[in-house]
Write a structure and sequence with these properties.
Blueprint: H1 15-73, H2 75-96, H3 103-123, H4 132-145, H5 151-184, H6 190-200, H7 202-205, H8 215-225, H9 227-230, H10 233-251, H11 256-261, H12 263-276, H13 278-289, H14 314-336, H15 344-348
């Protein structure tokens, strides 16, 4: 009653044993593919973590640098500016990690929150009544009167270019893990599991427990079993090329590190622009939002304090170097995995599974 290991000679196998062998080859094949995938997956997961840590380190540095701008140059509004600054960098972090948001909305929301503070603390420091309605009016007016000139739009442009590649790379790495996980659990067809039993276990039914499959025979069986997986070859090569393109984009002129570390300067230029145009802004705001309450003997506008140049912190230099090294290491490794899916049958037939140095091997029917 054997279905797979039929042979002219007497046999020690039963149909039940054949069923056990089929379960065994399915389990073994999944384990073999998992073992092959492990190094590749480990490398990608490791780099997802490393990239995210480097991003977070750069973001923390840029956030601290921007906060220190308010503490050193714009002290009257430093405390209230802390929350908008924190929100801006949280939004940037979420964008890099793939959240449904845009750089433009994050930056413009930041400047919307900043304008009421700049207006009431720097341009008109005598304002005492900054009610919710008046604050909201200032926020909405910001879009129309454009108090920060072209600096807010420039910041959107610079950050969008550099953060786009980081966002895409983050998503691409996650996609790579998804693809690898899917191939691990690709179901074996009935024909495939029968072919694997015939190759690996049918010799046992003849008492030939030490004989192993011939190399060519193993390759034919594995290629047939893994046809759907090896079809990923062209897409995988394209995927590696895309990763290479994205890492090069990150390291190119739209450098993530430079864009993030330059946020404080863009914010400073924007605030200076608003202060220099204070009288015109006040006249427009008075027409749109009305005149707020003033302290008696209205304080003169706060002097524009030139911000001290913040020296490049050691943490930034280290994060910058770390990110560059990780990029190079990662893409070098991934390029070596370009033929991963094309050569998967060869790799599964390597090692202990097949007979390489002996003159005899199993060809599916007999010892040859």
């Amino acid at each position: 009653d054997l279905q797979i290991c039929q042979h002219r000679a007497p046999t020690c196998c039963t149909k039940k044993m054949e069923e056990s062998y089929q379960a065994a080859v399915r389990r073994e094949r999944t384990q073999s593919i998992q073992a092959l995938n492990f190094e590749l997956k480990y490398m990608i997961v490791g780099h997802i973590t490393a990239f995210q840590e480097a991003f977070e380190s750069l973001l923390r540095f840029a956030e601290n640098r921007t906060s220190s701008l308010f503490e050193t140059a714009y002290r009257p509004m430093a405390k209230e500016a802390a929350e908008p600054v924190k929100e801006l960098f949280t939004d940037i972090s979420l964008y890099i990690l793939g959240a449904e948001t845009t750089v433009e909305s994050a930056v413009l929301r930041f400047f919307d929150s900043l304008f009421p503070l700049v207006y009431s603390r720097l341009i008109n420091p005598g304002i005492t009544d900054l009610s919710e309605d008046y604050t909201e009016c200032l926020r909405l007016t910001r879009q129309d009167i454009n108090p920060f000139g072209h600096y807010s739009k420039n910041m959107v442009t610079e950050l969008s270019k550099s953060l786009w590649a980081s966002r895409m790379l983050s998503q691409a790495l996650s996609l790579g893990i998804e693809v690898i996980n899917t191939t691990e659990h690709a179901a074996l067809t009935k024909e495939c599991s029968r072919a694997l039993v015939k190759m690996q276990y049918c010799p046992h039914c003849q008492g030939l427990t030490l004989i192993r499959p011939c190399v060519g025979y193993c390759l034919n069986v594995m290629r047939g079993c893994l046809a759907s997986v090896s079809e990923l070859d062209a897409q995988w090569r394209e995927y590696i090329s895309t990763l290479e393109y994205l890492t090069n984009e990150m390291a190119a002129s739209h450098d993530l590190e430079n864009a993030l570390s330059g946020i404080w300067n863009s914010v400073n230029e924007a605030i200076l622009h608003a202060q220099l145009n204070g009288p015109q802004l006040s006249a427009t705001v008075d027409k749109v939002c009305g005149q707020p309450k003033q302290q008696e003997g209205n304080l003169s506008s706060a002097n524009v304090v030139p911000v001290k140049h913040v020296t490049e912190a050691q943490t930034f230099v280290m994060a910058h170097a770390s990110l560059n090294n990780k990029r190079r290491e990662f893409i070098s490794y991934m390029k070596r995995s370009r033929t991963f899916y094309a050569s998967i049958a060869e790799r599964l037939c390597d090692g202990d599974l097949v007979m390489r140095d002996s003159s005899t091997c199993w060809n599916g029917e007999d010892v040859v």
